[in-house]
Each structure stands twice: as C-alpha cells, then as structure tokens.
Structures
1.
Amino acid sequence: MNPFVTLLLLLQPGPASPTDALGLDLDHVARAASLMVDGDVCRRIQTKRSLDYLLKQDPRDRWLGSDNYDVNHEAFIQTKKTLIRLSRLCEYPCDVNLWMPLAASPPRVQIVIRNVREMSQFWSWGVMHQETPPEMKRTLETGERVTVRKRPGMVSVLAPVRDSLGDIVGLVEVVGQVAADPRENVK
C-alpha cells in the first residue's frame, strides 16, 4: 500500500467520544434489525383480547390492561429470539426492544418485548403504553433510523419494522450504555 494512503488512514479521526462509537455500533445493529424482524409476525404477538383490554380504564381496577396482557406464544418467542440474537451483535451489553403503535388518539406506543437487561430511554417500569415520543413518531412516519441521547451515557437507535408489503408496523429500540449498570434499569 502507498505510504501516503496509509498515513491518511492512520490520521483519519475516530469517533469523537465513547457515545459516538456506541451510537455507530448500535446503528449497525438497528439496520440489521430492520431487515430481520418480521413485521407480519410482530402484528400477531399480542392477542386480540389483550388489545381490547389494553386501553380500557376501570376506576375499580387500575391494572385492568396489565392483568389481561396476553400473547400468541409462537410469534412472541420467535421475535424475542431474533431480538436477543441481534443484541449479541454488539461486543458489550445492549438490548433490542420491540415497540408497536396503538390505534389511539393521541397516538400511543406499547413496548411489546423488552429484552434481557431492560434498558430503554423511553420505557418506565409498569407502564403498558404511553404517548408516542417525537423520535418514535419520526421513525414510524418516515422509516428513518433515529439516534437518541436523552439519558447521559445511554444511546438508543430507533429503526422501523416492516411487514411483507413494506408498511411500517412498529419499531425496534437498540439501546446501550457507555458504562452499563446491571441494577439501574430494574429498580
């Protein structure tokens, strides 16, 4: 190789910070996830009965939606295994979570599958669904991968999940931390 070219390659700047390197690695996983996660299967994860209860409110039963959460096991397990395999593409702890939009006004999303470490910049423990954050809305509407750095030292990349017709039916959150704390996300 030409010594001048070698010198240029050596002088090429690397990532500016650990979170930049983390974001780049997570983006690669998110790109793969968009291709590997089957949106048709994802649509079959939650049962119709469970979806019917999800948005109902009962003043006598605050946990009506949570208590009646149910999945089609074959679709759930197939997708969960895919998400776990995708998380192993990183050389450090990361999670790949599945979020699906709900037919509600205002628009809402639900975390359908959380992964091993329960890392997320969007999910709060015990919350079944929430208003769609602007970053997720952007991914769901445009199909763009969006990098999010809301919490210090944590990076998420949101990527669309498509069905066999190419329609966006959900999104994955590929998330990691510069210095992972195994207890932080399960408090």
Note: The chain has one domain: 17-186.
2.
Amino acid sequence: MPSVPPTPLPTDPTPCASASRRRCLQSGAALALNLLLPTARAQQPAASTPAAAPSAASQTPPAPWSGDWPAPGVQALVARIVQRNGLSPSLVERLLGQAQYLPTVARLILPGPPAKKNWRVYRSRFVDALRIGAGSDFVQEFGVWFARAQQRWGVPPHIVAGILGVETIYGRNMGNFRVLDALSTLALRFPPQAPRDRSAYFGAQLGDFFQWCAQDGRDPLQVRGSYAGAIGMPQFMPENILRYAVDFDQGGRIDLSNDPADAIGSVANFLAAKGWTPGQPTHFPLQLPAGLPPATLDALLEPDITPTFTAEQLAALGLPLLPQARAYAGKLAVVQLPNADAAPDYVLGTDNFYVITRYNHSAFYALAVIELGEVVSAAAAAAGAASAG
C-alpha cells in the first residue's frame, strides 16, 4: 500500500513531555486512587464487653497485604514503586492488600516444553480464516482511523491491522485476568524454575499500572488483561500505555479496550517512536544459493534480526538479490525462519522489520504481522469493491 506523507510527528501525544510525564501525574495520583479504592479492611464490630488492655505486641498494626506475599518482598516493592511512581506507601500497601496470587499466571509465564521451531506452523496459527474475516470487517469499519494514523505517523494500515489481529483478534481476546493479580503474582512470586528472574520488570509494570489508573481515573481492581498484565486491543504493558498510548479520537480519555481509534493510533505512535521509516519496505524474499559455505551462512545469521549488511556486501558473498533488494540503500538482516525438519525459509529484513520486532522480539512474530496485515487489507479492499459494485 503506498505511503501517505506524514504530518510532523509531535514529540508527545499529551500536554506533558515524555520526560516529565511521571512528575505531572504524581501530585494527584494518590488522591485519585484513594477515591477509587474501597477500604482494605472492613471495620470490626464493637465489643459488647470491655476489652482487656492490649499488650505491646498487639498494638502493632497488621500488615495490610494478604498472606500470599512475602513481607520482605512487599516492603521492597513498595519502596521501589514509591520512588518510581510517586505514590504514598500506605496507598501502595492498600492496593497490594487487594491482590491475590494466581497459580495459573505463574504457570503460564514459564516457557513451554522444548520443540523444534516451525515458521509455517506458526504462520498458520495467525494467518487464518478467523483473523482474516474479523480483520476485514475491522478495517472496513475503522478505515478512516487507519488512514489518519498513516497520515500522522507514516505507518501503513496493514502493519497496524496485522498487530491488532495477531495480538487480540481485533479485541476479541484481550485476556480475563485481573491485572492487579497478574502483575502482583509475577512481581512478588515469580516462579523460581523460570530461566531468569523477571520479577523486577513486572514490579515496575505494577507501579506503572497504579499510576495509569490514577491518570485515567480507573479502578485498579476492575482492569482485566493477559496473564502477563498486557492490556487492551494492542496488549500494551502499563509502561507503554504511559509512554505511547494516545487519545486519537479526542474522546476525553485513552481507552485501548473499547475504542478502536485509540488502539490504532497508539500502535502507530509506538512504531513511529521506535523508528519506523515511512515508505520503506519491511523485507525482501531471499533464496540462498546451494553452494553457500556454512561458515558464510553462520556469519550472516550471527547478527540475527539486526540490520547489518549492505546489499553490495550480500551480493559480493554470492547471495542472489532481487532488483528491489539490490536498490535498497539501507542495512539488511539475513533472517532465518526454521521449519522443523524441513528446509528453512529466509528473508532480508530492513530497519522497519526490526521496528516491528520491538513490539515482540521475534522474526516469526514480525513476519506473521506483515503477512496477516497484507491478507486482511486485500480482503477488506475486495469486500469494499464488491459492496460498491
């Protein structure tokens, strides 16, 4: 789809500059959340007879959080959130007092059993009839917002449509875990058998979630999302909501779950912020020559998805490049797409291919987004033409 020249991209979609966004929100965050939250503990009924004088130990107030969480971990997390997000310690403790440990979340965050990577199987899970049909309807209904997003940020509609389809089938599957519970589980009881400890990352997301709820006047006890705490049609983590989400239709608030315009604009804004280049292709097909030395192939694959080689360098190594790839002026990545026991596929990824992997650090993901978006856009165009005729 041809690119529309973008209008100048603002440095930030809100009145606050990105660097000072947190400071702008912190002053009112505690008050906003206090108004939203119920009290953490119900009042106890008055005793019918005079109570005995309490001992010194009994005068120590109980911890406001549940027994699901280790006390030292909670105290450290509260301190980090207070420092990062400017919320009061008592408020953060009250919020954690409402959180529950979810064993299902702890299980789902673990990697699955080892299996051979298979691009063609992966593709079939996302470029399928359900997503194509839902995407065609979605693009036809909200095409004006895709066009406006391209005009503002330079990101083609099919890329944004591909991401929304892969992530949530255009809002049909946004997750049903309470985000407070999911993020608390991963911040305070991250499974020790995981390959690496990511509890600090999820703790930061939890603080950003509290701050976002304060900013938008949302009840943190009601927000639902994925098992990892991702929210809305584009499955933004809370940090990305604060940084990249936009009220694209100027409806008065950012709503990534119920407002397609905001979801479309926010994805385009994210990609633009990560370095999307308007008019640049995402990739070129590549067929490796049969006699390519294994050592040469290893050297070409070593940078993975990072664009590293010029077309001239690749041609000098004997790769048969298509004319459009030879004419490409930027750096390219040789991307291998394994197919289990079958021969792998290959593409040459551009800087824009790399930008898509900032959404999910996977070549499989990026190519599935691209190919689903292309098929969806073609289906929407065909349906529109048929309707007009």
Note: Confidence is low (pLDDT under 50) at residues 1-25, 39-61.
